[in-house]
Amino acid sequence: MSATALRSNTDPDFHSGQHQACSVCTLAELCLPMGLNQDDMQRVDDLVERSELMHEGQHLFRVGDRFKLVYAVRVGTYKSYTVDSEGREHVLGFHLPGELIGLDAIHSGMHRSNAVALDTATVCMLPYTDLDRLAGQIGALRTQMFRLMSKDTSDAAVLAGDFTAEERIAAFLTTLSKRYHVRGFSPTEFNLTMSRRDIANYLRLAPETVSRVFARFEKDELIAVERRSLRLTALPKLLEMAHCVGDIHG
């Protein structure tokens, strides 16, 4: 794991005041399967530690880091990305509270992407070896892990489709709306912690195209933007525009 604000399990102060029980976490139903009994939930609780506060620009892990932990976002937003041989960045996704990061490293044992905080953020950390052993004993936990791993594949298939810039951006915004809504936040008012350039990169569009579509959406009174604050003023219309694309989970 790269040098960040995280403490390691060997730090003598790591376990002091850092444990956050899944059983009392409001995000548990997003990253854990429903219906775990009290004993199984306690077994998951025993694995979890919480990172120290991270700030914008700090990396959770980098390409080539040894894969040891599965990370569940607790606060804030993270971006996963790679950099090609020409130095070009490729955004793979944006990760909100309750979502797991790092599962793509299971096969190789090394992280194949970078994960960086886009704002003030924290994660819960689960040692993968222990989590995998526990998942072998709790069928619902194993199923949940497979479900979360398959999401990245389905997102890639959606992005490969022949859709217009308006359809892609409408799908991105409405999917963000759904993701915030299931977390108990407003589905029509939220912050875009990711930059327009990052959104363009993720949606395979030019930054100028994203800016132009945002401006058009504002002119048509579909959205209202003030710095990072976004309001979806015509969510039904955006959903209609996005229906052919499907969910883009970012």
List keywords for this structure.
250 residues; alpha+beta; Jelly Rolls; Arc Repressor Mutant, subunit A; four-stranded antiparallel sheet; 19% strand; globular
Helix content: 25-40%
Specify the CATH homologous superfamily of the largest domain: Jelly Rolls
Distance between the termini: 24 Å
Q: Count the strands? A: 11
Count of helices? 8
* Beta-strand percent range: 15-25%
CATH topology of the largest domain: Jelly Rolls
Taking Cα atoms only, what radius of gyration do you get, to the nearest Å?
Answer: 19 Å
Helix and strand pattern: HHEEEEEEEEHHHEHHEEH
Largest sheet: 4 strands, antiparallel
- Average pLDDT, to the nearest integer? 83
Structural class: alpha+beta
Task: Note down, in words, how this protein is organized.
Helix content is 36%, strand content 19%. It has a four-stranded antiparallel β-sheet with strand order 1-8-3-6. Strands 2-7-4-5 form a four-stranded antiparallel β-sheet. Strands 9-11-10 form a three-stranded antiparallel β-sheet. The chain has two domains: 22-151, Jelly Rolls (Sandwich), CATH 2.60.120.10; 165-242, Winged helix-like DNA-binding domain superfamily/Winged helix DNA-binding domain (Arc Repressor Mutant, subunit A, Orthogonal Bundle). It is globular and about 55 Å long. It has 250 residues and is of the alpha+beta class.
Write the layout of secondary structure elements.
Elements: H1 28-31, H2 38-45, E1 49-50, E2 59-61, E3 69-75, E4 78-83, E5 89-95, E6 100-101, E7 114-117, E8 122-127, H3 128-137, H4 139-159, H5 165-182, E9 189-191, H6 196-203, H7 207-219, E10 223-226, E11 229-232, H8 235-242
Antiparallel strand pairs: 1-8, 2-7, 3-6, 3-8, 4-5, 4-7, 9-11, 10-11
